[in-house]
Amino acid sequence: MVAMNTVKLYAQAKLNLTLDLLGEENGYHLLDSLVCTVDLADRIVAKKRRDGLISVTMHGMSGETIPPEENNAQRAGEKFVAAFGTGGADITVYKNIPIGAGLGGSSADAAGVLRAMGRLYGIGDQAVLKAVADECGSDTGYLLTGGFARLRGRGERVEPLGAAPLLHFLLLVPQAGVSTAACYRQSDKYPRACPHTERALECLRTGNTEWAAKLFYNDLYPAARELVPEVEEALLALRALSPWGAAMTGSGSGVFAVFETRELCLWAKSRYRGGCRAYVLKTSELREGARSLYAAE
Questions:
Q1: What letter does residue 283 receive in the DSSP assignment?
Q2: What is the three-class DSSP state of 61?
Q3: Residue 211, exposed/middle/buried by CB under 10 A (0-12, 13-18, 19+)?
Q4: Is the pTM of this model over 0.85?
């Protein structure tokens, strides 16, 4: 891989189409989840610097208020330097992905920084990058490559599933976010639904997208709606628009509906009267460049 002085790329959001909770191991919840990346993304610009320091500047979505010690992009850059012994980088993250919405924005930024640093310094060792990414959070390793995949364990076991089926989404994001840690703790008091991931995946494999969408479900939803009641209000609003299916992503607060076409998504968005931010999105493979990417409707 040829080293570069400046790298610009997109860090894309993800949706959990399904999320089954399967128990605990060593204090961590185990899951089985069908995920895809979508065309909602943060933009990352990284410039090489000679020392080994990492400087991260955030713009948008209140990212400016994130302390450096809590910033996953900062940690990812520092872990990269420690792992590979390279120089540092000045990194700017232009945020479009809402924070606290279950869209993997923090993990996407960390993965984006690792990809950018790899290109700055000509390092393409995916096995080591994946190990570094897993230290930054369970979704980070997946978001190094993105696409259509199945996540198991704590989310670190990534099974790519080939080209993603084209799915069209209307995403609603309530103003209040959901704490991931609190949501997982709260979920322990609720019974688990019958696992949905394998059945939904089989429908997608056989081309039965409508039935797959009806199986999209998230075991964290009962806990999230208790913590943030707007989650339930948003999901009910989506279901009232007659989609193929609707569910929550991650630990919330974002909820999405699947429609047959983009035009139907736009129609549904025009009929929505609630206070959530609304985005019309589609499945999208991870993009390396930063020249053009549809971000938000």
A1: B
A2: coil
A3: middle
A4: yes
CATH architecture of the domain covering 168-282: 2-Layer Sandwich (3.30)
- Residue 167 dihedral angles phi and psi, to the nearest 5°: -120, 140
Task: Give the pLDDT band (50/70/90) at residue 289.
Answer: low
What's the rounded Cα separation, in Å, for the pair 27 and 292? 42
Three-class DSSP category at 5 = coil
Identify the three-state secondary structure at position 224.
helix
Task: Provide the 3-class DSSP secondary structure of residue 77.
Answer: helix
Tokens of 64: 């400016």
DSSP 191: P
CATH topology of domain 6-160: Ribosomal Protein S5; domain 2 (3.30.230)
- Which pLDDT tens digit goes with each residue over 260-278? 999 999 999 999 999 999 9
Per-residue confidence (pLDDT) for residue 193, from 0 to 100 = 85
CA distance 208 to 112: 33
131-170 per-position pLDDT tens digit? 999 999 889 999 999 999 999 999 999 999 999 899 999 9
- Cα radius of gyration (the chain): 18
Q: One fold for both 6-160 and 168-282? A: no
Which two three-digit tokens encode residue 273? 């009267």
Q: Where are the domains of the chain?
A: 6-160, 168-282
Active-site annotation, residues: 14, 139
Termini Cα distance of the chain:
35
